[in-house]
User: Fold these one by one.
Assistant:
Number 1:
Amino acid sequence: NAGVTQTPKFRVLKTGQSMTLLCAQDMNHEYMYWYRQDPGMGLRLIHYSVGEGTTAKGEVPDGYNVSRLKKQNFLLGLESAAPSQTSVYFCASSQGGTGGYTFGSGTRLTVV
Amino acid sequence: AQKVTQAQTEISVVEKEDVTLDCVYETRDTTYYLFWYKQPPSGELVFLIRRNSFDEQNEISGRYSWNFQKSTSSFNFTITASQVVDSAVYFCALSAGGDSWGKLQFGAGTQVVVTP
């Protein structure tokens, strides 16, 4: 049982480049989330989805876009990467949002 | 709006000492969930415990224990007889109702360093 899988695990981008982070879950969870983790700031919510075809903004959405075309996948896009987006990105899923959150192993992104 | 405060940035102890991590939360909702997660040096997030707002019973699980007090909006976590493997960053998190339902709000984390 894979749980939540994030790809890629590491990536280095040049300023202005674009990329997409993929999150896949095999638990049939309705809710999916993208967080970023920066030193001393905990995890902050970027975007989330409460079901297939829905997305909503979190705490720090600027510079990111997301899509949830299939229930099991939640994509995070950076259209024009900036050094301020250097961070560790975590995807998570949950059923109903009341607990039982499962996190992926993270993607370390560096923008130079 | 909801908020989680972990005032302790880093705690250093010698092995076998007890460690208590503080967590204070803010929410206007009467229904909410509180969590503790551990992030070891390998980077993954490990779920430790979840508590709902209607269950103030404190819990002990092995060397871990949790003290939930609604009167002071605190959800503290204690590691008894710490071990080197307990070295990690520990996060407290809150999921409340209303517009915040389902969204985990994390504290900044507390780095625990256990030395032999």
Number 2:
Amino acid sequence: AQSVAQPEDQVNVAEGNPLTVKCTYSVSGNPYLFWYVQYPNRGLQFLLKYITGDNLVKGSYGFEAEFNKSQTSFHLKKPSALVSDSALYFCAVRDSNDYKLSFGAGTTVTVRA
Amino acid sequence: ETGVTQSPTHLIKTRGQQVTLRCSSQSGHNTVSWYQQALGQGPQFIFQYYREEENGRGNFPPRFSGLQFPNYSSELNVNALELDDSALYLCASSQMGLGEYIQYFGAGTRLSVL
């Protein structure tokens, strides 16, 4: 079985401050990890992925994430948040031996001007 | 934009009715996955189609069924609709094999069951 936990329902930051959205996962095999963002009345947009290699991955719109195998975490980060980053963020995991994505419940990010 | 299109955008049905949702995958993609996203929750995997065959299924009853066509587009059919089926239904396309892992999502179909 595979699962994802996003421990924070909401994250609030001021524009220009660092943004972190937390994610932990559980899989039986090797994890393939993803972050998606969802704007109101829109589908999910892919931000970045970790499959193998360097633990720090860089993605779209200045976002990055760090894979930590010992802590089974894949936290999303952005050094300087923008008001336009306000959205719903989902972490997802796929076992390397499986085909389906399992999503967390999502974290709503609000960046205030 | 991902190139994955879903229709219709919104749909209202009554309990007991049947519904068909449609998805056109991104050009070059051979795999379609369907997800149900209830209000305030993350998407839940329904099933995946590859080469016109169901390739895997989540914890959904048989009244949720699907098809994939030779052009890789797909349909999700739900029979005997229940109130709890009200949700955003998301289609995602991907290219199985060739080391491609990303699923690209459409904007979804919002289904309301009254």
